[in-house]
Hints:
In chain A, strand 10 and strand 11 form a beta hairpin. Chain A is an alpha/beta fold.
Amino acid sequence: MLRIGMLTSGGDCQALNAAMRGVVKTIYxxxxxxxxxxxxxxxxxxxxxxxxxxxxxxxFSGILTKGGTILxxxxxPFKTIExxxxxxxxKVEAMVHTYHKLNLDCLVVLGGNGTHKTANLLRTKGxxxxxxxxxxxxxxxxxxMTFGFQSAVDIATNVIDCIHTTADSHRRVFIVEVxxxxxxxxxxxxxxxxxxxxxxxxxxPYDIKKIVKAIKRRQxxxxxxxxxxxxxxxxxxxxxxxxxxxxxxxxxxxxxxxxSYELAKQIQDETGLEVRVTxxxxxxxxxxxxxxxxxxxxRLGSEAGKLILKGEYxxxxxxxxxxxxxxxxxxxxxxxxxxxxxxxxxxxxKMLGICFGD
Amino acid sequence: MLRIGMLTSGGDCQALNAAMRGVVKTIYxxxxxxxxxxxxxxxxxxxxxxxxxxxxxxxFSGILTKGGTILxxxxxPFKTIExxxxxxxxKVEAMVHTYHKLNLDCLVVLGGNGTHKTANLLRTKGxxxxxxxxxxxxxxxxxxMTFGFQSAVDIATNVIDCIHTTADSHRRVFIVEVxxxxxxxxxxxxxxxxxxxxxxxxxxPYDIKKIVKAIKRRQxxxxxxxxxxxxxxxxxxxxxxxxxxxxxxxxxxxxxxxxSYELAKQIQDETGLEVRVTxxxxxxxxxxxxxxxxxxxxRLGSEAGKLILKGEYxxxxxxxxxxxxxxxxxxxxxxxxxxxxxxxxxxxxKMLGICFGD
Amino acid sequence: MLRIGMLTSGGDCQALNAAMRGVVKTIYxxxxxxxxxxxxxxxxxxxxxxxxxxxxxxxFSGILTKGGTILxxxxxPFKTIExxxxxxxxKVEAMVHTYHKLNLDCLVVLGGNGTHKTANLLRTKGxxxxxxxxxxxxxxxxxxMTFGFQSAVDIATNVIDCIHTTADSHRRVFIVEVxxxxxxxxxxxxxxxxxxxxxxxxxxPYDIKKIVKAIKRRQxxxxxxxxxxxxxxxxxxxxxxxxxxxxxxxxxxxxxxxxSYELAKQIQDETGLEVRVTxxxxxxxxxxxxxxxxxxxxRLGSEAGKLILKGEYxxxxxxxxxxxxxxxxxxxxxxxxxxxxxxxxxxxxKMLGICFGD
Amino acid sequence: MLRIGMLTSGGDCQALNAAMRGVVKTIYxxxxxxxxxxxxxxxxxxxxxxxxxxxxxxxFSGILTKGGTILxxxxxPFKTIExxxxxxxxKVEAMVHTYHKLNLDCLVVLGGNGTHKTANLLRTKGxxxxxxxxxxxxxxxxxxMTFGFQSAVDIATNVIDCIHTTADSHRRVFIVEVxxxxxxxxxxxxxxxxxxxxxxxxxxPYDIKKIVKAIKRRQxxxxxxxxxxxxxxxxxxxxxxxxxxxxxxxxxxxxxxxxSYELAKQIQDETGLEVRVTxxxxxxxxxxxxxxxxxxxxRLGSEAGKLILKGEYxxxxxxxxxxxxxxxxxxxxxxxxxxxxxxxxxxxxKMLGICFGD
Lengths: 358, 358, 358, 358
C-alpha cells in the first residue's frame, strides 16, 4: 500500500489541478501496490490540523482545464511558521505528527517560494517530500519555468491588447500594472507580447526623467499614445537606494495604493497628458490554464509520480535546458530567480525600441 | 456628388469601426452619385477645427474586427459646448461653419449620451445629422441595445470567471468593479453571466447589512467564497438620500478611489473575511468586438447608409423590439435609459438567489 | 412534496447546464414544498427505461459555464418514436409509465425541434410538460432566440476569423462549412460577423454562376481572396427544384461528403483558383457558453421554474420581442423557423455587398 | 545605405508579421546607415519576378498581433525550383538577378522546410541570407522551437476542448484531425493539453487493434466517450511497411479524404460506436499569434536584425537550450526534426495513460 499526502499552498495559480492530475494518474496507472491519496485542504493548514479528504482518479477526471485547486490553498504558515498558532500549537510539530499518524509514505507539495521553504524544513524533519514549482511569478530558483506563468502572461497580454485600442483612439498614456511579486518575468513577457512601449521591472530601477522623455519622443513622432507595462514591484532609482526598512516606511505613507498610481501622477504632472491606470489584479492567476501550462504541468506531475514510484524524495521537479530534472530541495529553498538586467531578452527588447527607464 | 462627414465622439468602444464600415460600404455599393467621405479626427474636435482626412472603402477594409476607432475620439466639447474655447472660438458656430465650408450633405455621428446632446444641438442649427448608438453602458434612450455593450459584457464576464477560480481556492470575498457609468446594465448582465452571488447597481441602492448577511449565509452554507459584481456607480441607500451636491462632496472626501474599495473595507470590518478588489477598468471598452456587436453594428451602419441615400435626416438609428428603427434626435438627447428595479430580468435574478442588497 | 423530472434531448449545445441550473435554483430557492428532482439520463432514453439519478442544487453548482449536459443526451426516440424498441417495448407508453410510476408532478424537457414533437406527444398523453428551447440552429418556432445559438455564432465566427488571415496571405478561396441543419441563421450571423464575402443558406438557393462571377469580380478588384460561409444545408437552384426524394438520392450519390466539397470543385473548375474547405463540425456545439447564452438560458430556466411553482404546464418558455413568454406546445411542435429571404437583415447584408448567390 | 530584401514563403502561420516587425524595428532603431527594405510579394515568386514594395517601420506598426503576412506568401518555387517556369525562365537565376539588380546587401527569408532548401541554394549562389524558422509543424532541424507552433497548439487544443463537452454528453468517439505535416509535434502537444485519450502521430505507427482495445476498455470503465487526436500524417503499422511509392498509390485510392475518416470507419465497424470526425484544417495556421509566439518571434527577429547589422550571413536564427543561436543554413536544409518515439514527453504521456496505438 502506497500512502501519499498532497497539498497546494500559497497564492493559487492556473494548472494546479493539471499538475495534481498528472501525479495521481501516473501513480494509479503505474503503481504495483494499492494506492491511497490524502488531499490536505487549504494548504499546510490541512496538514497542521489533519484536515483532509481521500481523493482518487475520479476526482481528477475533467479538471485538466480547470483553474484554481480542488484542494484549496492558503498562505497561512509561511510568515509565521516558526511561531505557534493562537492555541499554542507548534505548527511544524503538528505537521510532522499528522504525517506519521496517517502513516504516509510521502508528501507532494505544490507551491512557490514560501511553500518551498516550509517543504525543505519538513524534509529536514525526516518527511519524504516531492514538490512541484507553481507560481505565476516564475521566480523559483532551480527551474527555468514554473507552471501558471505562461497562463498569466496570456491574461496580462490580453489586458494590454484591449487597452491598446482605447489608448490609440484617445491618444492617452496607459499604465497596466502587472503582477510578479518582486520579479519582472511576467511584466517583461506580457509587455513584449503586447507591444508595450515602456516596461518597468524591479530588477531595473527606473529614472522618471527617462520615462517622461520616452513619452515625449513618442508624442513628437506622432504616435500619440504610450503604453507602460509596470510590474507591481517596479521601483525608482532613488527608492532602490533606500534600505529595506526605509522603503517599507515610504510605501506605507504612499497616498496611492500602488506604484502605478504614483507613476501616473508623476507622468501627468510632467507631460500634461491624461494617464489612466488599469490593475487586472487577481484575474492574472485565475481561469483555465493555457495549453502550454497544461502540457507542462502534466509532464511535471507525471515525473513527480515517477519519483514517488521509485521512492526518490527530497526533490523539486524542475525544468532546465528543456529537460525535466530533479532539484534537491535545499538548493531551492529561500532563493529567488530574478531577471538579469543584462539578459539577452532584455537586450533584444531594447533593440526593438522598448524603454526600461534606465 | 454626395459629401458625407463622419465622426466618433465620447469614450471609445468596440465595433465603432464595424459601424462606420457598414455606413461606408452601404453608401459606396448603392449610391448612384459619386461619394466623398470626410473623416473628422478626434470627435467633434475635428469638426470644430476642420481637422479631417478623406476616407474611402479601402480604409474600412479589414477593420470589422478591430477595436477602437480609426478616426480617433475625444470627450472635448460635451462638458463645455456652450463656452468658447481657450481662444474665444464659439465651438458650435465653428462646427456649423466647417460643415458648410466643406459643403457637406450630412454628418454621421457615432456616440453615446453626451454626443447625442451635441448632435441634436447641431440639428437645431440646420445640419443634416444621422447618429449611431455607441456605448458599452447601454444607457441610451430610444434603443433597446447599443453596440459595444455585448463586447463589454463578454470582457467583464471573463474577468469574473477568472476571479471565480481564485476566490474558490482561497475562500475569499472578491469585488469586481464593472463599468456602466450611472446605470447597471453592464454589471447586471456580466454578474448574471458569471454567476456572481451579489450584484450592486445604481438603480437599486444597497443596504450594507443585507450584503453582510448574504455573505455570512454563504459562509454558513459552506460555500466559503462570495463574488460581488459592483457597478462603478453603485450607491448605498443612505447616499441615495443625499442631494447631488452633498453626494459629490462626500465622494471627493473618500479615502478610497472608488465605491468598491469602500465596500471592501466595510465588508472586511463586518465579517473578518479577506476581501479583494479587481478593477478591470478601460479594458472593458477595448479589444475586438464580439460577433454579436459586429453583426449589430454592421446592420445599424447599413441602415444609416440607407437613410442617407434616401436623404432622411435628424434620426438616430436604433433597435426596438427586434426591429431596426429611426428615432428622432430630439427624443434621444438628454435622456438616460436605466434598469427598472422591477424589471423581469431583475426578478429572475432574485429568484436565482442573487442578492441585490435591497 | 414537488417531484420534478428533467431531461436534455437531441444534439447537445452550450448552456444546457446553465438552463437546468436556472430551473433548479429557482425552484429550490422559492418552493414552499420539499423538492425532489429526477434527472433522466441520455434524453428520452432515460425516461423510457427509467434510468435516472436524483439531482440537487449541489449538482448544479459551478456548471453555469460548463458546456455539454450533465444528464447526457441522445437522439434516440425521435426518428422512431412511433415504433417499438428492439424488445417490442412501446416507447411512448414506457415514458408515460415511468412518469406515473415515479409520481412526478411535471417533466422539464430541454431540446430542439425533434424533442418538442415528442414533448407535445407526451403532453397529449396527459403529462405535465415544460420545455426550454435549446439548439444552435435557432430554428425553433415560437421563440425569437434559442440558447446555444449565440455561442455557436461565436465559434463559427472565430473559425472564419482565423481563416481570413491565411486566405489573405495566400490569395485563396476558402469555404467554411457552418452548421445550422436546414436553416441559415447560424451561417448568416457568423458570415456577417466575420466579413464573409459570400453567404449561402438553404433559404436562398444559389446559382453557381453568380458565385463564380462574384469571385472573379473580387479578383479583378485586387482583393485576391474570397471567403464563403456556406450552411451545411445550402442548396443550388437546380437542386431546390427536385422533389425531396430525388434530392436525397442525388445527395447519396455525391462523391464529396458535403455540399462544400462539391462547391469547391465547381469553383476551382470555373475559376482556376485554389479552393480550400474547412469543416469545424461539432466544435460549434461545444465549449463554454458565451455570456449572452448564460444570461439567456438562466433567465429561461428561471421562468420555467416559475411556471412549475405556479403549476402551469404545456408550454415552451420562449422569447418574443424582448419579452419572455410561454408558448403552447402544440404551436411549437413540428414547425420550423427559417430565414425569410426578404428579411431586413438579408437586405442589409446585400447592401453591405455580401453575395447570396441569388 | 543598407539595402535589405525580405520575403515570407510557404504555408503561412501566426507571428510572421511579429517576426518581420522584430527585424525591421531592430534595424531602424540601431543602424548607423540609412536603411531601405524591399518587401518581396508572395514569397520567392516576388523575388523571381522582381515584384516588391518598399516597407518602412510604419508598415510594421500595429501588426505584432496580426495573423498572416503583410507580404503575402506562396508555395511556388519549392517543388519545381529546378525547372524553368512556363515561359522558360530559370527561377534560381532570376532570383539571383533580382538580388543584384536591386543591389541588396542581404535577404531575410521567413519559412519552413521547403523554404530553407531554396534559401540554402541561394546562399550557394553567393547571396547573403538570414532566415527565420516559421512553421506550425515545429519540424525544422536546428531549432528546438519554431514560431507559429504554440499558436497552432492553442487553436487545436481549443477545438478538442469544444469537442470534449459534446463527446461527453453523447458518449461518442470523436476524432480530431490535427495538422503537422509528416511530424507529430502539434498533435502530441494539443492532445496532451486537451486530455485526449488516444494520440496518433506519424512517428509511432499505430495498430488498429490496440486502438479498439483502448476504446473498449474506456467503455467498460464507464467513461463512455473517447477522444482521439490524430495527426494528418498518422500511419498504421502495415502502411508504414510499404515503400513510399506503394503508400502514395494506396492513399490515392482511398475513398475517404484523410486518414481520420478511414480510422473512423474502422473503429465504427469494430466497436459499433458512433464515431465523428472534425477537421479544423487551415484555421490552425490563422488568427492572432499567441503571446508566447509574439515574444519568441520578436526575439528571433531582433537577433536576425543584429546579424544583419554585424554583416553575418548564411544562418538561420534558431533556439537551442533556451539560448538564441545562429545555425549554418547548410545544416538546416533538407532535414526534418521528428518526435523521437522514446522521448521523455512520450513516456510521460504513456504513464498518464494516453494510448499511442503502439
